[in-house]
Amino acid sequence: AGGGSGPGGSAAGDGGPPAPERVLFPPTFSVSEIKNKQRRHFMFLRWKQQQRKEKLAARRKRRKEREALGDKAPPKAIPKTIENQRVYDETTVDPDDEEVAFDEATDEFAPYFNRQTVPKILITTSDRPRGRTVRFCEQLSTVIPNSHVYYRRGLALKRIIPQCIARDFTDLIVINEDRKIPNGLVLSHLPDGPTAHFRMSSVRLRKEIKRKGKEPTEHVPEVILNNFTTRLGHSIGRMFASLFPHDPQFIGRQVATFHNQRDYIFFRFHRYIFKSEKKVGIQELGPRFTLKLRSLQKGTFDSKFGEYEWIHKRREMDTSRRKFHL
């Protein structure tokens, strides 16, 4: 390093004021070699600061070069992410696949998509739910139209399902809890299944969301399904779609989003407004939660004798960070 400056040192001119302190790390510098914990932490922060400055300077340099070249500038490089480096899945759905179209026309959700049935949902809980789970079910019922909440008091789930079918319910949602916190969701399509088991996390009620909007209205919301690309993901997406009636009421400007990213399904409920032809303002209404598929079972809920189409086996399936199943 020129000027007599070194790591953590400074250089001053002849008779002039001391130059600002500048840290120059050698190419082989390793923070882990510093024995003192405080000094190690301090040097790590300085090193990160230097890395950020170098990255920002390189970005500004590239931008100036692009402005100088104008239309002759090369296209921007696409950054590498886990999503665009995803391992190809053989079951990825092609929209023009005749086999997929035939399966969709004959599966358990075909009556809904053919407008032969109107969604009617029963939302229930694990036995004797606590306050937070109760409030979550109440708020979920305001998101899903034509849904009814029933709090279980010792009634087995296998006895609830025949009663739901007799009363023309098309879907059953069960919210499970652990230590007063909702931690699981079972979605069973009636009368013939399938049944999906999800792990639930990151639950936020309306009062816990910052800058939340007013209470949702009774208008039928729009539904957005993102990134359900495989055959398994397609089935899960059709399950979520069949919870909401056809023909959303756009005057309500409400939208329910199921966004799949790395096999985590993020649910958000928003109200939007068009500020101009190009700008849209959104306001979250809540609740929000995250789902992780654990299994997909044929037929209705049967924990003992049910036949499973897919089960998440962590040790066997999660061998690569770039392999996803939905």
Automatic annotation (TrEMBL):
<keyword id="KW-0690">Ribosome biogenesis</keyword>
<dbReference type="InterPro" id="IPR044281">
    <property type="entry name" value="IMP4/RPF1"/>
</dbReference>
<dbReference type="GO" id="GO:0000460">
    <property type="term" value="P:maturation of 5.8S rRNA"/>
</dbReference>
<comment type="function">
    <text>May be required for ribosome biogenesis.</text>
</comment>
<feature type="region of interest" description="Disordered">
    <location>
        <begin position="49"/>
        <end position="84"/>
    </location>
</feature>
<protein>
    <recommendedName>
        <fullName>Ribosome production factor 1</fullName>
    </recommendedName>
</protein>
<dbReference type="GO" id="GO:0005730">
    <property type="term" value="C:nucleolus"/>
</dbReference>
<dbReference type="Pfam" id="PF04427">
    <property type="entry name" value="Brix"/>
</dbReference>
<dbReference type="InterPro" id="IPR007109">
    <property type="entry name" value="Brix"/>
</dbReference>
<dbReference type="GO" id="GO:0000470">
    <property type="term" value="P:maturation of LSU-rRNA"/>
</dbReference>
<feature type="domain" description="Brix">
    <location>
        <begin position="119"/>
        <end position="302"/>
    </location>
</feature>
<feature type="region of interest" description="Disordered">
    <location>
        <begin position="1"/>
        <end position="25"/>
    </location>
</feature>
<dbReference type="GO" id="GO:0030687">
    <property type="term" value="C:preribosome, large subunit precursor"/>
</dbReference>
<feature type="compositionally biased region" description="Gly residues">
    <location>
        <begin position="1"/>
        <end position="16"/>
    </location>
</feature>
<dbReference type="GO" id="GO:0042134">
    <property type="term" value="F:rRNA primary transcript binding"/>
</dbReference>
<feature type="compositionally biased region" description="Basic and acidic residues">
    <location>
        <begin position="65"/>
        <end position="74"/>
    </location>
</feature>
<keyword id="KW-0698">rRNA processing</keyword>
